[in-house]
Amino acid sequence: MKKILFASTALVATAGVAAAEITIGGSARFGLAYDESQADETRIEQRMRVNITGIAETDAGVKLEARFRLEANEDSHANDISGRGPGAAGFAVSYGGLRVDVGNVSNVLDSGDQVDYFGYGIGFTSFLEANSNFNGPATGFGADSKDFTTIKVRYNVGDFSASLSYKETRAQAADTTTLTDSNGDTVVITNTAAVAADEEWQLGLGYTLANGMAIGAVYSDTDSAGDYWVLGLNGTAGAVGYTVMVGDGDNQQDVSVSASINYEVSSATSIRALVADGGVTGADTAYGLGFRHGLGGGVTLAGGIGSDSSSNTKADLGVSFSF
Predict the structure, then answer these.
(1) Residue 15: its pLDDT value, please?
(2) CA distances (Å), 44 to each of 41, 259, 321, in order?
(3) I want to staple 286 with a disulfide (CB 3.0 to 4.6 A). Which of 160, 181, 218, 276 is the partner?
(4) Residue 242 and residue 124: Cα distance in Å, rounded?
(5) What is residue 112's predicted lDDT score, i.e. its pLDDT?
């Protein structure tokens, strides 16, 4: 991550007690991806993300942040590519164990504050994750605009953590343009679709045991999707990292369960496995096996193969790196 430091005369006058900086960091990946459910089964996977964050800290130690993202990736298996961003901004203020996030930010479930909702993903694109058979309302930071604003508060004290998020979507009418064609007929073009009003509350509680195992729970109540809950635990045992998760809600028929592991063969190489079951009506068991090998300098070679909840075979192989 690169840092660009800025100091105003006011900051200099405090002899360095207060500070401000801009950090630029991101990640990129490219390789091959396969999905048998697509007409063009194989595609060139390519994605680059750049996060730009402004950081300031008061004399009292209160830290403030604002960030947005730029992103470029492929749009489909047709191998068309595009860029987007800068997306909507996310803001944060933190002091001690308290942190408040506002704007284009993750809700409790997506943040991973208490439950690791994604686990050890398979492949360099993580085409299978621990939540493959889950239907939880996880929304997070991205390079796009949002129809809603999210507020999340997290507090950590010792081995205990608690998070609360609120997301409000206000009703928005469709933006349309009315034209008359050459035949004299009226044509209505929809520029922006209508957005329905919605509210979401999420509460998360977590605790880390003396052996390092973390256990957590998240409860969500959304106007549009009803209630949803998730319980999870994760930790390490020697060379093995693991996640286990179970969840259910009004928007799925069966209880979802999943488990993922990461076995470190060496300091550079690891093997991953994942299985997820249950969930929405007709969902099949999702499973996969993958590997990751560090090449140094933040570069990783990774790949995997598996079957998703619709019994479609997926696979990928490529490199990813951070900067």
Answers:
(1) 41
(2) 10, 29, 17
(3) 276
(4) 18
(5) 95
Strands (E), 18-174: 19-35, 42-57, 63-74, 81-84, 90-95, 98-103, 148-157, 160-169
What is the CATH classification number for the domain harbouring 126? 2.40.160.10
C-alpha 115/C-alpha 305 separation (Å) is 25
Provide the 3-class DSSP secondary structure of residue 109.
helix
The range of the structural domain enclosing residue 246 comes to 2-322
> How far is residue 275's CA from residue 163's CA, in Å, rounded to a whole number?
28
Burial of 272 by CB count in 10 Å (0-12 exposed, 13-18 middle, 19+ buried)?
buried
pLDDT, average across residues 79-86: 81
Please tell me the distance from the alpha carbon of residue 119 to that of residue 32, in angstroms, as a whole number.
22
Domain count, the chain: 1
Q: Which of 71-85, 103-117, 260-274 has the lowest mean pLDDT?
A: 71-85
Distance CA 303, CA 317 (A): 4
pLDDT at 1: 53
Read off the amino acid at residue 55.
Answer: I
